[in-house]
Design brief:
With 77 residues, this protein is an all-alpha fold. The protein is built from 3 helices and no strands.
């Protein structure tokens, strides 16, 4: 999935997308072990997608934390 589309998604949707990608990676590894996988490059592509989703999730967590921290500091003043 494209990074722009992922960045536009909500956190809960990203969690679901990450679960789906991990399940797909599991299935690809299973196919590889049973010699049913024709294109082994799919594994690398899915792994990159998992990392991409995890990175965007972390960026959103950090942004939310910064927003909460700055709001708390503003309220304390």
């Amino acid at each position: 999935m494209e990074t722009k589309k992922l960045r536009g998604m909500k956190y809960a949707d990203l969690v679901q997308e990450l679960e789906d990608a991990k399940e797909e990676l599991f299935n690809l590894r299973f196919q590889l072990a049973t010699n049913q996988l024709d294109n082994t490059a799919e594994i690398g592509a899915v792994k990159k997608n998992v990392a991409r989703i995890a990175t965007i999730m972390r960026e959103q967590e950090i942004a939310a934390w910064k927003a909460a921290t700055s709001a708390k500091e503003t309220a304390d003043e």
